[in-house]
Amino acid sequence: MTRRTRKKVAILISGRGSNMAALIAAAIDPSFPAEIVGVISNRADARGLEVAATHSIPTTVVSSRDYDGREAHDAAIHKALTEFKAEIVCLAGYMRLLTPDFVQKWKGRMINIHPALLPSFRGLDTHARALATGVRVHGCTVHFVTPEMDEGPIIAQAAVPVLTGDTEETLGERVLKVEHRLYPLALRLLAEGRVRMSDGVAVFSGVEDEHRDIAIISPGERRD
Fold it and tell me: Which of 25, 34, 192, 224 is deepest in the core (most CB within 10 A)?
């Protein structure tokens, strides 16, 4: 039986890279359909670079301070990705807006994880905004990246309850736990060709009807 070639994945980070670590952990399994071939950060002090290095994953820093404008910086990021021979790009806490030209080059091959149930709470401070709004369910979303911030077609989502007495920190911790489960699941779908972006929507094939491949529902924690 012919072994399927694993897709080459590069990860963009700006900080600690906890979702990056979850993807690396998943890819350690040789049966996982993707391998992590490189990590790129726009910040030299990103803690995730050390995590990647401990797994012998090549890293590079492309600092925006070294380039005149977003277009030049993104061109350098694209060059680094091609040097890694990346086929898929995962954003994992990458805190810079990408230019439309860069996004177009990676159309359908670049995904992001966002700490909210899109289309609600696009942008920053999602947990605080969820608490302020009074929603009873919160979560995270993996989506294809498009030029509009946090508006790409949704691949997978995970939901957690908002508990009585939650703070921004406790809610964020609960969401982060399911992020670490959801992102590898979504990457698997893309790497296996079971999801693709077409005409601005996510198109699925071979995904089971009970949605276990595209949604995680967490019961949260009981508090008496």
Answer: 34
